Amino acid sequence: MKNENLAELERGCYLSKEMSRLYASNYEERTKVQDLEKEVAMLKQRIDDMENEQKIMKKNKAVLQESSEDDKALMGALIANEQKIKDELTDLRRFFIDHLKENVSNPTPFAVKKMGELDSQPFIQAMGISEDTIIHEAMVNCSLWNENIKDPHWHPFKIISIRGKLKEVIDEEDEKLKGLKKEFGKNVHEAVKTALTEMNEYNPSGRVVVPELWSVEENRKASLKEVAAYMLDGSTPKRSKRLKKRK
After folding, report:
1. CB 198 within 8 A of CB 77
2. Burial of 192 (0-12, 13-18, 19+ CB in 10 A)
3. Is 145 exposed, middle or buried (0-12, 13-18, 19+ CB in 10 A)?
4. Residue 168: its pLDDT value, please?
5. Number of separate helices (H) and strands (E) present in the chain
6. How far apart are CA 101 and CA 229, in angstroms?
7. Diameter over CA atoms, the chain
């Protein structure tokens, strides 16, 4: 009987300790979440402030460009401050991109899209049959065209005027693109054109894919404010990363 009572007492002590441990763990996690929510709210407010500052600076720069030489110093200060804000916005974008990459297993309305990377699905669909050997061949073709997109010597673009503004667009008469469409069809042709356009917009000189915040549901680039609002209201990352402040 004594042994049974001792066993029950030990079991009770163990459960009490385990409950205390779990409570402390949950309290610590709740505290981390609350701290992170405050951090994200501050980031969201900082984004709003920086975007407003950018608008004001653009107006001031336009006025100063028509002013006298005495305003050159002020113009220089505005340009330096504008660059600082751009750098901070870039840091914020990287912060959100890193978070989404780390939490890729958790579905969210936002993801990281590699701008300039070719979608392999049109190549697989163009083969018609879902066999391993066929899929392998499709992936080989996709890799080949990925390399073509990264080739700085291939620039299938032309400049046209739209409402008085010059714009660079895909040259539909490019021989390589015409051959691609003939061999693989319209969907593959469109996929390569999309990747080329993204590469030309994001990294025309380096020809390396660039990660970008992306709205999955609307299939478009996501703004910093959208992602910050979602992190604040809809999702909270488990681990916080502090942004390094630029000096």
Report:
1. no
2. buried
3. buried
4. 94
5. 7, 5
6. 18
7. 100
Q: Write the secondary structure of 130-187 as one string of H (helix), E (strand) and C (coil).
A: CCHHHHHHHHHHHHHHHHHHHCCCCCCEEEEEECCEEEEEECCCCHHHHHHHHHHCHH
Helix, strand, coil in percent for the chain, rounding step 5: 65, 10, 25
Q: Could you read off the pLDDT of 6-41 as tens digits, one per residue? A: 454 454 455 545 555 555 555 555 565 566 666 666
**Pairing between β-strand 220-221 and β-strand 110-115 as defined by DSSP bridges:** unpaired
Report residue 246 CA to chain centroid gap: 21
Residue type, 74: L
Note the Cα 213 to chain centre separation in Å. Answer: 2
Instruction: For 145-191, write each residue's pLDDT tens digit.
Output: 999 999 999 999 999 998 889 999 999 999 999 999 999 999 999 99
